[in-house]
Specification:
single chain; about 90 residues; 1 helix; 3 strands
Length: about 90
């Protein structure tokens, strides 16, 4: 959402092995005044982060998962039950 933003670690969020974790990304605001809140299993781990480029962009939205461990080891991450909900205030 913002190429110039610094990398942010979310230390409060653990992701246990072999247990599904629900991730929810909620965008509020319009255009370059868009903010996001990220939830892990219903707990907000990032709140009201300004992502101006996300609100004005038209390209693909890419998300990444960083895995901590020994160099050279492989990690497998699978995604399922992906849902996109769009709401418009009237």
């Amino acid at each position: 959402g913002n190429r110039d933003a610094e990398h942010t670690d979310v230390f409060a969020a653990g992701w246990p092995l072999d247990k599904p974790v629900a991730i929810r990304i909620e965008r509020t605001g319009e255009g370059n005044e868009s903010d996001i809140t990220i939830y892990m299993d219903g707990v907000p781990v990032v709140q009201s982060m300004r992502v101006a480029a996300l609100g004005t962009g038209t390209g693909e939205l890419r998300l990444g998962v960083y895995v901590e461990g020994d160099p050279g080891r492989k990690a497998r991450v699978t995604l399922d039950n992906v849902e996109v909900v769009r709401r418009k205030l009237r």
